[in-house]
């Protein structure tokens, strides 16, 4: 019952492997969690955390603020931002690689987190500036005068002079931090509830999430969206009240924060996918209907994963944008979420370290190529400028990875480990070997 | 005719020249009468001179005005005589303004040229209109009507009335009559005539009518103590708070001197600052004046000490507003005329509304046909084959760029479009087949993987286009016969290019239906989509069919690209603008059914235009809300408007 009679086999390999880094059967339940602690059962998590710690230490010792000064502040920022991207990639891997929901909206959640924190940064900083300029006045300013002056400072650029209702909480850091988590979470909850409830799955769901992202970015592009339209929020790298602290130090703080967040997010995701819960969501990915027939509330599981990863993405964004310094609606455009999928696919789906490797590798290589550091190739009749051609290479390599290396860079670890896997019939289709989507293969 | 008369007059004058050489001609006398203001040449004072010339009825008046306008009217310094002067070899030849005969010559120093500035020339032109209205040349008469429409004056009314009946050109005659009625509304002293003219325009859609009527209904706000006055001049009574903002109402009271001014926060602040004594104001520490309440308190204390004027409190404001009546009076026209204009405007508004609805419908139809064009290729690759091609938008872009490149080589726009349409089909057909062979056929039945791989291709194609053609928009120029618009009236119009797109959309619908239902290929496509193995055992080669179908869908996207390129700018990102909407169109309509796609496109187009109509300044918002609506729509009808049933749905 295979299409192989009429269509060429989807890949040369007839037999598949089971993951190396994971103990226990991939689709089996893990009753009680076993006697050994979680970390021991998953050595890959420990290895990853150790690598991250060593990396953080190295960067700290080489940084300008706390060490030898070999690594420049701007590169520390780039590394810190990369760690945030790794975190959102881990979230993407959880929702896509493990749960099978190809969401094209997670960079929107990422951006919403950034906007939430950016509102406070911009408000608090402008408040300080305004307070300073008004303190010279003969009468102490009233609260109305202060807020009017701040509003003109912030919204003058889009022709506004009043605070939109959206900014009601912008004065409070704790509330905006909560918003960085709650806004993406709530949006994901509502959107996910609507989508999963009506059983929108597969590519339809992807297109729907892409539409959501497009709608959000179009909305933010308007000047009257209350978030300064096309201009976005800027000056976020300056922490209010910390003008005396050099950027080198601030960037290290954010670097540590990002590393910590990545470690925590990685641990959380690894823990979520390790136990019985993880087995269920992998089951949903491989055969949703069968899991539903087994009595699980598929929608509930999907909604939980979708919302959880949206929250993680929001946190990553809240850490990313103070390092980037500026956020505008273009960052939320659908293409950003597509790139996120590209990173995870190139790194290797269905393995969390794959997502980290993919995001770090592709975004750093991207920076290298688009930064103009890559040497141009002179073909005689045409000079290849990597600034122009890198995106083409990225797109095509994405096609190649999808076609020939579905397990991505992370799959190389399996080759090195040379673990043998049980031989099973059927085409190797999934993100990880062992994800046998037999029904799909048969159709 | 008048020119002939003029010549005749000149001839007669020339015969009589010896007799009249000493006495100044009538026109010369007239000019001399206004010599002072003519010489002063100021726009503000020149009016009587021009009016006198225009109203003189003298046959030479027109030529004098024309020469004056052309800076050919000179003044002889020695005796102040107005003459025309023509530049000779070393001196100016002088010509008498009345008789047009040479009366000698003079050096430049003995003459003064009259140089009317542009403002005066405009006034002269307005005065000349009445002569031009009766010019034998229809072009001149049309130009005169244009001039009146631009800048109508009361004097034109008489000119129009005198000449309107006699125009041989019917369209000019109609224009004259219409203009005469419009000017009657504006300038006729007889109220009954104005009202009659206004009533004649009820329901007329012309912008000129609205432009004439709107100033007539202008009102000014008035306020009076006690009850509001009654009478026909009162347009309406205003209730503060509902018809009139409270602040505005009070400002009106202050302006009319019926109430004391309220002090603004700014002035209050200034007053407080002016009364800072030893770090406190009226006994309150300056540092404590950081709330509005504290400032009010300090100010009230200052007022109590008579150091500042007492300010009106909120209660005072309310009392003042309650004690007065606010109303609007017609300020620009007598009440009867204004009322008639109001009624006529209401009638016009109704028919304008109807026509706007029609216009909106046309707009929505054309937007729908653009979406349909963008989506029809997708209806084949996604709808029929089930292949998610995220590079579909890039095929549209590829087609548009093909058109652009063809136009670089073929300068004739009609011919270039005729070449570009099949060529774009060929190019994108080839690209589609290549893509199907290289990538997509390995990924059938793995939709998520197809989505990803085609994303990769989309990213790469977009960047390649950017590298080749640059980031700026490239023009794809439509032939001349497609530029312009079909104007039904002043409200409803549709550009020909949109009609062409509409026709194109219908054509593709027909092509699609024909291929799918009437050709061998369509039969085989349907067979392969329903059951590839069964089709294969019937002797159909599914590989070949899939390849051809995908190529067909891509080719149609290319042709759509040329059409869309004519209407929108060609950029490397244009595909992105349509891809999400295209998928939405297909999904909303119902996958696998062309009529569904048509309905989907119609729904999306009408919806977007409808939202735009509610919020006309903001197309971004319209797109946002439309996408949100579609997301919600899919919640309730996940299979689209037309859901496939039975076996076709399972295929």
Could you please describe the fold and organization of this structure?
The complex is a heterodimer of chains A (443) and B (651). In chain A, helix 3 (73-98) packs parallel to helix 8. Chain A is mainly alpha-helical. The radius of gyration of chain A is 24 Å and the shape is globular. Chain A has a domain at 38-333. The model of chain A is unreliable at 1-34 and 420-443 (pLDDT under 50). Chain A has helices at residues 38-41, 43-62, 73-98, 106-135, 143-155, 173-197, 202-221, 247-274, 276-286, 288-293, 298-324, 334-347, 352-370, 386-404, 411-417, 438-442, and strands spanning 233-234, 326-327, 377-378, 383-384. Chain A is built from 16 helices and four strands. In chain A, strands 1-2 form a two-stranded antiparallel sheet. By secondary structure, chain B is α+β, with helices and mostly antiparallel strands. Chain B folds into four domains: 2-122, no CATH class; 134-216, no CATH class; 219-336, no CATH class; 353-650, Orthogonal Bundle (ABC transporter involved in vitamin B12 uptake, BtuC), CATH 1.10.3470. Helix content of chain B is 63%, strand content 8%. Chain B has 28 helices and twelve strands. In chain B, strands 4-3-2-1-5 form a five-stranded antiparallel β-sheet. Chain B has a three-stranded antiparallel β-sheet with strand order 6-10-7. In chain B, a hairpin with a 5-residue loop joins strand 11 and strand 12 (493-495). In chain B, helix 17 runs parallel beside helix 21 (496-518) and helix 17 crosses helix 25 (574-589). The longest helix of chain B has 50 residues, at 335-384. The radius of gyration of chain B is 38 Å and the shape is extended. The chains are: A mainly alpha (443), B alpha+beta (651).
Order of helices and strands of chain A: HHHHHHHEHHHHEHHEEHHH
Number of discrete helical segments of chain B: 28
**What number of domains of chain B?**
4
Mean of the pLDDT scores of chain A?
Answer: 82
Assembly form of the protein: heterodimer
What portion of residues of chain A belong to β-strands?
under 5%
Strand order of the largest sheet of chain B: 4-3-2-1-5
Of all chain pairs, the largest interface belongs to:
A-B, 63 and 64 residues
Distance between the termini of chain B: 84 Å
How does the major sheet of chain A shape up? 2 strands, antiparallel
Structural class of chain A: mainly alpha
